[in-house]
Amino acid sequence: MRRALVTGGTGAIGSAICRKLSAQGAHIYVHSNSRLDAAETLVEEIRQGGGSAQAVSFDVTDAEGTEQQLQQILEEGPIQILINNAGIHADAPLAGMSRQQWSSVIDVTLNGFYNVTQPLLLPMMSTRWGRIISLSSIAAITGNRGQANYAAAKAALHGASKSLAHEVASRGITVNVVAPGIIDSPMAEQSFSAERIKQLVPMQRAGSPDEVAELVSFLSSERSAYISAQVISINGAMA
């Protein structure tokens, strides 16, 4: 049984990914920083459905704490599927953006990618099989007003992932990025009215978390073995 870590595993997209990977037969580590109760609830749901899962909690911006938690996980065996999904928003026009707003988003998304991915690489490489997928955003491709920090952090994942893909390709590890557009979630409901979504999205609807999870599930499987170093959009033809 392959072992998968999903950071930010309790949000709309993260929980959908956990369910899909469980259905694919993986043992799931459902990560949450501040919502361990939600992670435990999802774990129980997965187990009741016949899957295998456990909850883990750490702050991806805390390099030392993250490594300690990951070393405990690695005592049980290598992680072969890593989904970097943890991220935050702190939106503001750049002219009015505080240093804290800038730094916090960069820290969670970009430094979090390093803090989680780097300690898992050598154990994953030793198995000669792995899938690393990071969740980005259409904002990293097209830009978005009020999200210079978010777009910068997510765009940086594109470059980091492409570089890492070259480094680990010979070990049977693929590295890809999934960049969603407007996805049906509490956050999207707060930001976009139904009419606005019809104006912005050629398909005239928001995507579903399950649709994103299906793509991530495919990229995490044997079927995607020759796909690496790619940024794959899922946005209803927005870009």
Gross morphology is globular
| Helical proportion, percent range | 40-55%
Q: Predict the CATH topology.
A: Rossmann fold
Number of helices: 9
Q: What is the β-strand count?
A: 7
Q: End-to-end span in angstroms?
A: 37 Å
Estimate the strand proportion: 15-25%
CATH architecture: 3-Layer(aba) Sandwich
Series of secondary-structure elements, N-terminal to C-terminal: EHEHEHEHEHHEHHHE
- According to CATH, the homologous superfamily is NAD(P)-binding Rossmann-like Domain
- Biggest sheet architecture: 7 strands, parallel
Pairing-aware structural class of the strands and helices?
A: alpha/beta
Round the mean pLDDT to the nearest integer and report it. 97
Number of domains in the coordinates? 1
Query: Unreliable runs, pLDDT <50, ≥5 residues?
Result: none
C-alpha-based Rg, rounded: 17 Å
List the defining traits of the structure above.
48% helix, 239 residues, seven-stranded parallel sheet, Rossmann fold, 15% strand, alpha/beta
Task: Please describe what this structure looks like.
By secondary structure, the chain is of the alpha/beta class. It has one domain: Rossmann fold. It has nine helices and seven strands; from the N terminus they run E-H-E-H-E-H-E-H-E-H-H-E-H-H-H-E. The protein has helices at about 10-25, 35-50, 65-75, 100-125, 140, 150-170, 185-190, 195-200, 210-220, and strands at about 5, 25-30, 50-55, 80-85, 130-135, 175-180, 230-235. It has a seven-stranded parallel sheet with strand order 3-2-1-4-5-6-7, with helices on both faces. Helix 1 links the parallel strand 1 and strand 2 (about 25-30). The longest helix is centred in the middle third of the chain and has 29 residues, at about 100-125. The chain is globular. The model has no long low-confidence stretch (mean pLDDT about 95).
